[in-house]
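Hello Y.,

Per our agreement to keep a running log of every chain we model this quarter, I'm adding this entry. I've kept the format consistent with earlier entries: sequence first, then predicted structure.
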Amino acid sequence: MRILGTGVIALAALSGGYYYWWNTVADTGVEEFHRWKTARQAEGFDINHGPVTTSGFPYRIRMDIANFQMADPQADNAPEVRFETAWAIAQPWKLTHVIFGVGGENQVNWSQNHTDYSTLWSAETALGSATFETSGRLKTLSIDLKTVEARPSWRGPLTAERLQLHTRPIVREITTSDDKHPEVPGTQISLRGDTIVPGLKEDIPLAETLEHFGLSAVMEGEPADLFDRDSAAKWRDKGGILDIQALETRWGDVKVDATGTLALDDEFRMIGAFTSRIVGINSILGTLHQNGRLDEQAAKTAGYALNLMTRKDKKNGDRYLELPISLQEGSLYVGPLFLMRIPPLYP
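Predicted structure for the entry above:
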């Protein structure tokens, strides 16, 4: 009986100790959030939010924040994000891995060329996963949005069945002109979108739905915030490039697969070159004609010349065209054809 009593006391002490430790860790998480908030405010960010609450005992720590708002009024485009609800979950014994999400109707605001823009968006589910180094620096990030609806202020609504983003740090070995092989830090980026209805039928009348968009790329150089002009300039001036390992687009009759590199010129315009395999070149020419970028005779002449260059895929019978794609001096070209103007990233 004494042994049983001792065991009960030990179990109670252990449970009480764990409960105390869980609350200590939960309180530390809230304190860390407020420290992060204070540090960002010292950098000039405006941050406001509702109550911060914790729950999830005993196996996890969940932090909920209502009406979170964060803005950077000092940045060129003054970005601002608002989340109706935001939450994050971590296991008490593994705080370097966090699951997070947002809910309700959310908003993104920014300005460009003295014009204010905003986008209201919501999703059936908006989940993310992030891992951190022990120093607190972000390592990997994954975001998964399902059944998304966005309502931009300057155009019609956009919907998507699914949008995904994955990033992770990598180190690549490159070969220099003097045959050395230094290691260059980089970030692996993967983007995917399925069943996207962009609402651009009048501008790009290819099809109502973009069935699939996929991008796998490596941003070479130290991680850069391409939404910030100064950060992008430092990345560019240190030789930063975006190595696009695979780009896939399926839009109606048009299918494009490409690989290449992108960089920024002195005016923050994208420059680069790609090799591409294009199915549906006639649909692209028809779009250019409907948009007034090619007159009828030019479209017919280009179609005749390009169709002579097509090959037949032995597997599925598609006629495809292999053409270089280039971006230079603010213009996008498919082969020798001017497709559209590409504005600078920043005014």
